[in-house]
Every structure is written in structure tokens, then in C-alpha cells.
Amino acid sequence: MARVWAYGIAAAGLALAGCGPMALPEAEELCAEAVAPKAPLSGEGRMGIASDGNFHSDIDLTFNLGAAGDPGVAYANCVRARAGQAPSRPYYDVGGRR
């Protein structure tokens, strides 16, 4: 019976350890990727004639209107939320961004 309690307490400790803040370098890298500029327009299109003789077409477009504001501020806020502390370097110095 004592072993069951010990295993339960150990499992609870491991589960709660995952809820804490992450390491600062990991948070900086994840947040830099999250706020990095994306392509403004992307998509794909298909069209053709099927074996039954019917014409088929399909268009899938993705629009990225961008986030309002400074990505450096969004990066700093993201790092604080994930790591519990301010970033060690500004957004424009992470990953060779300039």
C-alpha cells in the first residue's frame, strides 16, 4: 500500500513539473517563430476533367493580414508568459533577424 502512495505522489510531482515555466532559450526560440512574419498570400489550385467527363476545380487560398503592432513587443510578451522572465536578447537579435 505504501508503494501505491509513493508512485501516486511521484506521478503527481512529474505532472505538476510540466506546468512550470520553460527554459528561457526554448521560450525565446518558440516565441520568435510564433511572431515571425508569414507569407501574405499562399494557396493552391487544381482543375481538370475527371474520367466521367465532368470538369472539376478547387481553389484554396490563405490570407495573412499580419499582426498589428510591433513584433518585438509581441515576442517579449510571449517570452514573459512562457518563461516567467524578460527575454535575454531582443527579437531582432534572435535567429539572425535584422
From TrEMBL:
<keyword id="KW-0732">Signal</keyword>
<protein>
    <recommendedName>
        <fullName>Lipoprotein</fullName>
    </recommendedName>
</protein>
<feature type="signal peptide">
    <location>
        <begin position="1"/>
        <end position="17"/>
    </location>
</feature>
